[in-house]
Amino acid sequence: MTDDEPTSTRNLDRYGNAPLPWSRARDVLAADTPTADLTFFVATVRPDGRPHSAGAGAVWVANALYVVGGPGTRRSRNLAANPACSISVRLRGLDLILEGDARRVADSGTAARLAEVYRSGGWPATASGAALTAPFSAPSAGPPPWHLYRLALRRAAGVASAEPHGATCWEFAEA
């Protein structure tokens, strides 16, 4: 078993369908980010304990999910204080929730690699140290540079909206 494979799988389906393989979610993430029109929602915890959720640009690279956040955004401020978060997305045939800790990327090489991935999807990002810049981003993102965060995946849950149907929870080793 590799670090990016689940340590356990739990079938959540009530209708007799088999557990979904993690590879189904992983392969769609790899194939569809950043080129498909996907909206990822990042849920974080405010300092007072209340939840916060916002859309974010995300890509799956080398078996990890990365998201972008402007340094002044509520999402980035929340993650700086508490990295625990969940990220949800509707993929082709599968609704997916990913849970774990999102930590800021501090490596300029990773930022350069991710900028290239984002460019392949149409966002003209470039690396600026360990952050990204571009001529534009979402109106709510604030000014560049934008931080990158890598999700250390601890749990994921998927509900299939296409054959084969099913619902499954996958647990991962702590990173």
From TrEMBL:
MF terms from GO for this chain are:
coenzyme F420 binding; oxidoreductase activity, acting on the CH-CH group of donors
Stretches assigned to coiled coil: none
Q: What is the lineage of its organism?
A: Bacteria, Bacillati, Actinomycetota, Actinomycetes, Pseudonocardiales
Q: Which residues cross the membrane?
A: none
Name the InterPro entries for this protein.
F420H2_bilvrd_red/Heme_oxyg, Pyridox_Oxase_N, Split_barrel_FMN-bd
The segment(s) forming the Pyridoxamine 5'-phosphate oxidase N-terminal domain are 38-120
Q: Name one Pfam family in it.
A: PNPOx_N
Q: Which Gene3D superfamilies match?
A: Electron Transport, Fmn-binding Protein, Chain A
What Gene Ontology cellular-component terms does the record carry? cytosol
What name has this protein been given in UniProt? Pyridoxamine 5'-phosphate oxidase
Oxidoreductase recorded as keyword: yes
Specify the species.
Amycolatopsis rubida
- Keywords recorded for this protein, A-Z: Oxidoreductase
